[in-house]
Amino acid sequence: MDTNKKNRELISALCDGELPDADQELALAALDTPDGEQAWARFHQIGDVLRAAPAPDLSPGFAEGLAARLAAETLPGKRPAAPDAAGAAPQFDQTVAGPT
């Protein structure tokens, strides 16, 4: 078995309070690695999401109404360049100079 996978399983069991006493030392050693720290944080984040209150129900037709409003939005276009004092639009040099 892959060591990282086994470590993540130990950490998961520790988070869930289901770790056998015989594996406690292995789980604590697994937590002392970057992968273990990341797994610990990830498992706790997953638990937080699972325990969170469900989102309120949306009103009927909400998704369709939102889609219609988004479809009616005008897409932003390019803004015209502001003219200079003489009334001419500024010209930009688009060449890219690299290190010489």
Describe this structure in words.
Residues 80-90 have a biased composition (Low complexity). Residues 8-84 form the Anti sigma-E protein RseA N-terminal domain. It comes from Telluria antibiotica. With 100 residues, the chain is mainly α. The protein is 51% helix and 0% strand. The chain has helices at 3-16, 24-31, 34-51, 62-72. α1 crosses α2 and α1 packs across α3. The chain is elongated. The relative contact order is 0.08. The mean pLDDT is 83.
Question: Key terms for this structure?
Answer:
single chain; 100 residues; mainly alpha; Anti-sigma_E_RseA_N_sf; Anti-sigma_E_RseA_N; Sigma-E factor negative regulatory protein
Q: What's this, in brief?
A:
It comes from Telluria antibiotica. This protein has 100 residues and is mainly alpha-helical.
The averaged pLDDT comes out at 83
Number of DSSP helical runs: 4
Question: Which range best describes the helical content: under 10%, 10-25%, 25-40%, 40-55%, 55-70% or over 70%?
Answer: 40-55%
Q: Structural class, from secondary structure content? A: mainly alpha
Mind telling me the C-alpha Rg? 28 Å
Catalogue the unreliable spans.
none
Strand proportion, as a percent range, falls in: under 5%
Order of helices and strands: HHHH
Question: What composes the largest sheet?
Answer: none
Shape: elongated
Number of strands: 0
> What distance lies between the first and last C-alpha atoms, to the nearest angstrom?
54 Å
Please specify the SSE layout and strand pairing.
Layout lengths: L2 H14 L7 H8 L2 H18 L10 H11 L28
